[in-house]
Amino acid sequence: MVTRVRPANPAPRQAPPPELRVTIRFRRYASTGPRYSAVITAGDQHVGDVESSRVPFCDGARVAKATGLFPDSTRIVMVRENSDVVALHGELGRVAELTVSENISHRFVPYQARPEIEEDEA
Questions:
Q1: 59, 71, 70: which is closest to 111 by C-alpha?
Q2: pLDDT for 60
Q3: Which one of 4, 6, 69, 96 is at 20 to 30 Å from 112 when CA atoms are compared?
Q4: 17: Cβ contacts below 8 Å, ≥ 6 apart
């Protein structure tokens, strides 16, 4: 006979933080390349928007992080509008610190804030 012992007051289980979702939509081509808009949500909660971006996944992560509502370990995913296929995913804290290099090869590099640049009206 096996006796099972249970603690008197088990620690309450905390629900995992909601997954952040960055839904991107193609807007237009500019002289600097394609521009996208993005809507950031956590479950049914609207977190923020990105109006126009070359790197909507990383910019969306920075918008979500700026709210202060989510820990850096929160999972963030990017999907295209009208699709549930995850194109990119990562942890909020890591993604918010990245951008895409504009050099010869497109790759993730550390983000460095720079002055706002007026975009072309193409």
A1: 59
A2: 96
A3: 69
A4: 42, 70, 71, 73, 74
3-state SS of the chain is CCCCCCCCCCCCCCCCCCCEEEEEEEEEEECCEEEEEEEEEECCEEEEEEEEECCHHHHHHHHHHHHCCCCCCCEEEEEECCCCCEEEEEEHHHHHCEEECCCCCCCEEECCCCCCCCCCCC
CB pairs under 8 A, 24+ apart, for 43-49? Answer: 43/18, 43/19, 45/18, 47/20
For 13-53, how does the pLDDT look when each residue is reduced to its tens digit (9 = 90+)? Answer: 666 667 999 999 999 998 888 999 999 999 999 999 999 99
pTM over 0.85: no
Structure tokens at 4: 């099972």
Domain boundaries, the chain: 20-108
